[in-house]
Amino acid sequence: FLLRLTYGYSEMRWSRFVERNRSELLNHALSTAREAANFYHHCIEMIAAVAVVMAMTVALVYKSPAVACGLGSAVIVFYGVHRFLLRKQLQLAASKREQLLHMLQRSLADMFTSGKEIRTYRNQDFFHNRIGEQAGLLAASNRRVTFLPQVARILSDQGVVLLFLCIVVAVQLRHGDLRQLLSLLVFYFVISRRLLPLISQISFFAGQMESSYENVRIVDSELRECALHRAPTQTIQLPAAGFILELEQVSFSFDEGVPILRNVNLRLREGESIALRGVSGSGKSSLLNLIAGVSQSTTGVVRVDRASVAYVPQEIALLDDSIRNNLLFGLPEKSDAELMNALAAAKLNEFVAAQPLGLETGVGDNGILFSGGQRQRLGVARAILRGATLLLLDEATSALDDENEGRVLRNLGTSGIAVVLATHRIHKQFCNQRVFWLQEGHLIEEPEAPWISPHVSIEASHVTVGMKL
């Protein structure tokens, strides 16, 4: 279940995946999958117990059909109590427990993620109280889920025994054989203490299965959603010779909404660098996602060798591991010289060399031990190490100071790697390259004055120049 869920989530369309809460996905892949697996474990154990009970029942029927009918009546009565009184309550308690567990895990994730702000605002009590309230509700739900199967077990272990013996007494009294009543009661009591514990065990497994079935239902629902929203298989189309990227009449929108990109055309030569500018929300990240293969275009054609594409987002995702493993990020082992060369291109080699553990230095949970600029440079080094010929930078140097940013961009500009830099800022290192603006979904090239927005009037640009002079 764990592997099927993680595979399904990784294959889900990006527009759907970003709508899901990460803590809930984590809970489904760990807790829910484990509880769902327990359902099948209990099922196997119950089948084994049922097989033994059936064999003993056949023997009992052969010995005394009347007593066997009495035993069957007792079991049916108990099953009715379980079916109509306990089962519904158990299902409701299990469903509520899963909901409360999701809420608690989400609150914990929010608290741990916002640790810096919480300490700054000193509002720990708010989060502690919220978590305490949710934990109390979850504890009550857990007690209910644990208690109800025990009630069923006690009923089957004690109540069915007494009911069975009462039926035996009634049968013997009806036949008038009172002299053998005491010996028969002892005999059947011994038999019932052997047979009925198995029935009790079956009842307990049934109760456990009822509480675990909710998790099976959730896993099934998640797998169905993954299949429903699975990203289509992408056909790789390569650009023409001498080009690293070709976009032809590319449009994109989220779930048939308002188009974010409209009929975008772009051709990028090998080793060429361009700057992609636009206001926040203009579609810069969406365009990079299309090139990287994270999202799929609504219409049009994207021609690029995605095996040669590296993507560095603004918020770098780092493993809670060493610098070495964060650089490799799934690549086969590489030499220290190769790792340091990639770090040098990102202007991070001196920092790493100064660490006592060097490449084995831990970065903390999502790089919390590093500054924002160091995390971004580590992400750039990771991309360079992959030997990409096309590098996509989505505000990937926004946390750097001007000097370090200039050095990193100059290194990239002379590396022979084609670069697409999406940014709000003006970069002198890219002023001699082509600059494109995204406006209302359209891609507009501005080759002559890249530092001036296409919608800025001539008078405004004159004023700006006068102020600079």
Residue share in helices? Answer: 55-70%
Give the SSE order as H and E letters: HHHHHHHEEEHEEHHHHEHEEEH
Kindly report how far apart the N and C termini lie. Answer: 67 Å
* Radius of gyration, whole Å: 34 Å
**Overall mean confidence score, pLDDT:** 80
State the total count of DSSP E strands.
9
| Structural shape | elongated
User: How many strands, which pairing sense, and closed or not: the largest β-sheet?
Assistant: 6 strands, mixed
Strand content: 5-15%
DSSP helix count?
14
Which sequence of strands runs across the widest sheet?
5-6-7-3-8-9
The residue ranges in which pLDDT falls below 50 over 5 or more consecutive positions are: 449-469
Kindly name the structural category: alpha/beta
Protein model, in words:
By secondary structure, the chain is of the alpha/beta class. It has 14 helices and 9 strands. The protein has helices at residues 2-10, 14-17, 22-63, 65-113, 115-121, 124-175, 181-228, 284-292, 323-328, 336-345, 349-353, 372-385, 402-413, 458-468, and strands spanning 243-252, 261-269, 273-277, 299-303, 309-312, 390-394, 418-423, 434-439, 442-445. Strands 5-6-7-3-8-9 form a 6-stranded mixed beta sheet, sandwiched between helices. A hairpin with an 8-residue loop joins strand 1 (243-252) and strand 2. Helix 1 runs antiparallel to helix 3, helix 1 packs parallel to helix 7 (181-228) and helix 4 runs antiparallel to helix 6 (124-175). The protein is elongated and about 110 Å long. Mean pLDDT is 80; it is low at 449-469.
